[in-house]
């Protein structure tokens, strides 16, 4: 456990977290929504360890967090204009985009049906780790069926020794999930309304958006 409010501990913790992720291990990190448990997005074994730690199956694929706008270009089949508009408006922040992933990528995030859910979080500790390591598969830091962790201590109580490094960024505040927009079809669809209102998505795109 590293207290990221202390500059020295933060540097040490980020270095330890990056080493752990490179070694295929799990880390807990703060985000702008709730605490997440993450690993190397390109390691199938690490993703399976993440799902096992949560007690969850591959039927609910793990999202991927990125540390910059440009990272998305290497991860998806193509970036439509609607995705660019939403990224410019809401990243970093509480908006997740579902897009067809690049077929050349060797990753196994679960039953994705050829898609990937991407987000850039608005949290300095998360962004520093993502910029140091690269894209990470990150899910909420909790056991399946339990409330999402609002602190590193909550996450440790649920996930324990299955996680190698805990980055403590303080309480996460009100646990609000990201809004999820599916851009895999001709018409954008909001699969889940969360931190970003549907009306704000529609305003940026200049059209009505479908909701599920």
From TrEMBL:
This is L-threonylcarbamoyladenylate synthase. One of its GO terms (cellular component) is cytoplasm. Pfam families: Sua5_yciO_yrdC. It catalyses: L-threonine + hydrogencarbonate + ATP = L-threonylcarbamoyladenylate + diphosphate + H2O. InterPro entries: DHBP_synth_RibB-like_a/b_dom, Sua5-like_dom, TC-AMP_synthase_SUA5. The keyword Lyase does not apply. GO terms for molecular function: ATP binding; double-stranded RNA binding; L-threonylcarbamoyladenylate synthase; tRNA binding. It is found in: Cytoplasm.
